[in-house]
Design goal:
Two copies of one chain form a homodimer.
Chain A lengths: L6 H15 L7 H8 L3 H7 L3 H24 L6 H23 L6 H9 L4 H27 L8 H22 L8 H9 L10
The first copy, chain A, binds a DNA duplex (30 and 30 nucleotides) through helix 3.
Chain lengths: 205, 205
DNA sequence: CCTTGACTAGACTAAACAGTCAACTATTCA
DNA sequence: TGAATAGTTGACTGTTTAGTCTAGTCAAGG
């Protein structure tokens, strides 16, 4: 009983947007309240700090956005290497779309925030690590599938997944830093090379 | 005439240290002054803002630290692939050393700061891009040398350099986020695979 | 040795910021 | 319908911060 509200959801969305557009440290609680059209008192009714909200917002991002997207792209019903190709392509198109919409390449919020707060905000940092680990699992099982299918050279799937994640995050970070989505354009070919794909198309990378 | 001072250098060093340990946004001018043992009045005598100091500090970092190190590792007198191997190894050891000394993996300050401020601080961002571009040139010419030596498959050197930089930065960022230098341990093998090295040792990656 | 100018000291202001609180309002359910 | 509950409001406090200003200190060059 009592009145209901979606202010907490508006706060999570506003926080994620602002942190993605600027950075964790540059965004104030007042900024978030303004964007969400929520008053300070309500903010503190739902969350006890910016870090607390950030953790909730990252959790929501994973459940509402990332998990569904990854479940679609990394579906077991799709050919293993084709999953990676589709994902590389999705990453590129997503960043190019952000540039068109926001006027800037925004990169990966998880990596930006994680790198920014890792030595500072323990709770935020733990949530980033959790989401990161979940994402790695998609890469890892797809690598195992690709090995089983004889599409790539046998390797340590966990290490290869880390390397693939590194390549993606690093290239996307460069795109943000350079504010140029075209940096990501050749990610697909480079990614297949790193995977050790046996396809002929890779030679042209 | 008049007295001389190294307060500006102490300020640059303190700024770089603090920003590396925490983040650009988390560090205040007072923090920097305290670490450098310099009073506010002197700070504003030398620099007009935190961004102004950050630009100077990054410039100094490049000239005093990075350029000499890279000139040594990427010396033309060394075998091309061996340069990369030595560099991958240096990256790993540097981060493992930071973990021992600071208790935390600190990652790459250029990438962390660049990613954090790219949509905010224009001047800092421009300096980050400049240093980044300089670093890419080492990779690029080494890739060309490796192709000429027949050590790696022919490819677009600029694109490959971007990919290599991405892999390194991404893996190092993961190491910072996870606070675990071991994430970087297999960078060497993965890097050689991404380069398209023809050596047999790569197969075990 | 003293003048000039580079540098230092630290108190000060104003703004931005996080966080609190008590009174108020709307909704639900009994 | 009305009591209990869930959420809202905005003014308030105290602290941290950037940035300023003036009076001073110190070292080199003449």
């Amino acid at each position: 009983m009592g009145r209901t509200s979606d202010a907490n959801i508006r706060l999570m969305n506003a926080a994620l947007e602002l942190i993605w557009e600027e950075s964790y440290g540059a965004v104030t609680i007042d900024d978030i309240c303004n964007r969400a059209e929520v008053k300070k008192g309500s903010f503190y009714y739902f969350y006890k700090s910016k870090a607390d909200l950030a953790v909730a917002a990252l959790d929501r991002m994973w459940n509402e956005e990332w998990k569904p997207t990854l479940d679609g792209i990394f579906s077991s019903s799709v050919d293993p290497l084709a999953r990676f190709s589709a994902y590389f392509d999705w990453v590129y198109r997503a960043q190019a779309g952000l540039k068109k919409k926001h006027g800037k390449v925004l990169g990966c919020p998880l990596c930006s925030v994680g790198s920014e707060v890792s030595t500072q905000e323990q709770n935020v940092s733990a949530k980033v690590r959790e989401v990161f680990s979940r994402k790695l699992k998609y890469y890892e099982s797809t690598i195992r599938d690709a090995i089983a299918a004889g599409q790539i050279a046998p390797c340590d799937a966990a290490k290869k997944a880390t390397a693939i994640a590194g390549l993606i995050e690093g290239v996307v970070a460069q795109a943000r830093i350079m504010d140029d989505p075209e940096v990501i354009q050749s990610l697909g070919a480079q990614g297949l090379t790193l995977l050790g794909a046996k396809s002929a198309a890779v030679a042209s990378a």
